[in-house]
């Protein structure tokens, strides 16, 4: 059977392609933007990638076209599929019908931390010998690929609230029918499809409706937006956790205690009893929260906290999540996926706690649909204020000016040229930490900065 995937280099669709290939299907795909790490791992699995959305990519006709949610009416490939009457389906629906049936699905949802928490949970189950299947919207360093079928009933999935397809406006996660659900957090995002936070909460409520009574919902005790979701109706047990050193609430059995201020070491407590200490290479309060959620979810399928803690001590991280790209002349360059003010702030705070007074330079591309629409522009300058220098990239055609956003922040500037940003980074002193933040390829700026430093 031949499956052709439209939007194959997206983090979700690329992982889906790997599952289809593992099932034995011939898999090809088209995308407007083909760049690593997704393109690299797809090509390594023998999946043919085609640049653009020409009708010729669908000739001869595949048996099935899987349509990514970035596709819309007017796209040449979409119009050809409809005109020719080709068999098509959304990615989440295909996944539900061909992979998730009869699986114990563990889903990780929320505005931030989905990819990292999914990677952590998958690694914990793998470390415990459970051979989970998984689909991760990124490339975890503890595994060779971002998705696999696995060898057990357990399947871990990153559960995104973005809409399913141009013909199915439900959130993707309502297709997954999970038994274990982590709700990391909830803020306003995806301004291109959701008018306000209430609209996103309604979709999370729809997810809650699909969880069985013998399932489990895991969340923090400090997320009022998620409490509002549960108040709409909840039919499954809820387990809450706290990032405070101790919790006085009787309904919050899990909590953490920082051993290192930067989050690189922390104790885990259950019902007031110490379970062990996580010592790892991750930093930041957000990483601690992600780790705690993964430990709790793993316990729901039988992994003891001690074993989960041991696993996290060997967690290697995820590509493009504070991934160290290189170091030249004492200047370290990181690649990070942050594309929301909260993610920018927490990532930089984690780095600051780790490196102390060493200079931090943040290079940020506001690339996501929400960023480009300006939904969070009033929060942007403050979100990066902890950095010593911030360089914002003003992409063409954004429709609003970053110059207005950074007014009153003398350590922040706007550049309209990639080359100009690279030039700004060439004279940095030894010890400087450069964090490049974008949810896209950013024209390969990371390596350009390293090359310029070397020269």
Automatic annotation (TrEMBL):
Cofactor(s) named in the record: Mg(2+)
SUPFAM superfamilies cross-referenced by the UniProt entry: MurCD N-terminal domain, MurD-like peptide ligases, catalytic domain, MurD-like peptide ligases, peptide-binding domain
EC number: 6.3.2.45
Pathway note: Cell wall biogenesis; peptidoglycan recycling
Mur ligase N-terminal catalytic domain span: 2-99
Top EC class of this enzyme: ligase
Chain ranges of the Mur ligase central domain: 108-298
Amino acids binding ATP: 110-116
GO molecular function annotations of the record: UDP-N-acetylmuramate-L-alanyl-gamma-D-glutamyl-meso-2,6-diaminoheptanedioate ligase activity
Domain Mur ligase C-terminal residues, every copy: 320-440
The keyword Magnesium is assigned to this record: yes
Chain segments annotated as transmembrane: none
Role, per record: Reutilizes the intact tripeptide L-alanyl-gamma-D-glutamyl-meso-diaminopimelate by linking it to UDP-N-acetylmuramate.
Entries under HAMAP family matching the protein: Mpl
Protein name from the UniProt record: UDP-N-acetylmuramate--L-alanyl-gamma-D-glutamyl-meso-2,6-diaminoheptandioate ligase
Organism name: Neptunomonas phycophila
Taxonomic path: Bacteria, Pseudomonadati, Pseudomonadota, Gammaproteobacteria, Oceanospirillales
């Amino acid at each position: 059977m031949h499956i052709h995937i439209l939007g194959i280099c997206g983090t979700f669709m690329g992982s889906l392609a790997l599952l289809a290939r593992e099932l034995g299907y011939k898999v090809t795909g088209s995308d407007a933007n083909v760049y690593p790490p997704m393109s690299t791992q797809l090509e390594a699995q023998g999946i043919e990638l085609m640049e653009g959305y020409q009708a010729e990519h669908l000739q001869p006709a595949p048996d099935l076209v899987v349509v990514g949610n970035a596709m819309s009416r007017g796209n040449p490939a979409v119009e050809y599929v409809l005109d020719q009457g080709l068999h098509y389906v959304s990615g989440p629906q295909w996944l539900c019908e061909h992979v998730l049936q009869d699986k114990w699905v563990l889903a990780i949802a929320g505005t931030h931390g989905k990819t990292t928490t999914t990677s952590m949970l998958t690694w914990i189950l793998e470390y415990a010998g459970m051979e989970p299947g998984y689909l991760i919207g990124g490339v975890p360093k503890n595994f060779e690929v971002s998705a696999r079928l696995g060898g057990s009933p357990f399947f871990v999935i990153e559960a995104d609230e973005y809409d399913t397809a141009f013909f199915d406006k439900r959130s993707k996660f309502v297709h997954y029918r999970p038994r274990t659900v982590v709700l990391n957090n909830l803020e306003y995002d995806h301004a291109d499809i959701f008018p306000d936070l209430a609209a996103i909460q309604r979709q999370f409520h729809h997810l809650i409706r699909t969880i069985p009574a013998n399932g489990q919902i895991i969340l923090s005790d400090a997320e009022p937006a998620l409490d509002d979701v549960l108040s709409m109706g909840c039919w499954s047990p809820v387990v809450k956790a706290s990032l405070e050193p101790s919790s006085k609430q009787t309904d919050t059995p899990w909590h953490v205690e920082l051993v290192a201020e930067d989050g690189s070491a922390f104790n885990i407590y259950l019902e007031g009893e110490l379970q062990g200490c996580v010592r790892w290479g991750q930093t930041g309060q957000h990483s601690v929260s992600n780790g705690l959620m993964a430990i709790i979810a793993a316990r729901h399928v039988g992994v003891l906290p001690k074993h989960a803690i041991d696993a996290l001590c060997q967690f290697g991280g995820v590509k493009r999540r504070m991934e160290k790209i290189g170091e030249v002349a004492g200047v370290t360059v990181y690649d990070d996926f942050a594309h929301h003010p909260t993610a920018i702030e927490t990532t930089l705070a984690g780095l600051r706690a780790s490196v102390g007074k060493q200079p931090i330079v943040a290079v940020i591309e506001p690339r996501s649909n929400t960023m480009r629409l300006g939904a969070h522009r009033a929060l942007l300058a403050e979100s990066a204020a902890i950095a010593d220098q911030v360089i914002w990239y003003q992409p063409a055609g954004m429709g609003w000016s970053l110059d207005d956003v950074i007014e009153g922040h003398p350590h922040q500037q706007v550049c309209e040229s990639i080359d100009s940003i690279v030039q700004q980074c060439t004279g940095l002193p030894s010890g400087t930490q450069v964090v490049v933040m974008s949810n896209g390829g950013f024209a390969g700026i990371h390596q350009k900065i390293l090359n310029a430093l070397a020269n």
